[in-house]
Amino acid sequence: MRKSRFSQEQIIGVLKEHHAGLSAGDLCRKHGISDAACVTSAWRHEIISGKIASASEIAKRGSITTSFVSRLIDLSFLAPSVLTAVAEGTAPVELTVNKLRSIGAIPLDWQSQRAVLGFSD
To answer: What are residue 96's phi and psi, to 5 degrees?
Structure first.
């Protein structure tokens, strides 16, 4: 398993900052976490916690399509190794935004994701 770039103490500190009222966006900028990762993670948490009932509610709130919200939430389940490869530029060249859009449902199993997305293990 890949080691987190944040220590347990740092993660707890970020959670305390959020609990104290700092917005997710501000936390992301402060700690160098991509806005997309924060947004999709926040959306997923809102649905799981029951704060929001569905992707369509998030879409209405943000004046975006339900399809767009659903696809981004799906991407928040990508394997850490896939995200790292994309960030480092070592992902397969055929792994494009269009390919991600064309996949009906990305498997939740990380090994299956890697196979579907063109990684050779």
So the answer is: -120, 170
The secondary structure of residue 34, as a DSSP letter, is: -
* Neighbouring C-alpha atoms within 13 Å toward the C-beta of 7: 3
Question: Cα–Cα distances in Å, from 90 out to 20, 41, 84?
Answer: 38, 24, 8
Q: Which residue has the tokens 């976490």?
A: 33
Please choose, from the candidates 118, 58, 105, the residue with its C-alpha nearest in 3D space to the C-alpha of residue 77. Answer: 105
Q: Which two tokens mark 114?
A: 């890697």
Q: Are 79 and 113 a contacting pair, CB within 8 Å?
A: yes
pLDDT by position in tens, the chain (length 121): 445 566 777 777 777 787 788 776 677 778 776 666 677 778 888 888 899 899 999 999 888 899 888 878 887 788 888 877 877 778 898 887 778 777 877 888 999 999 999 998 7
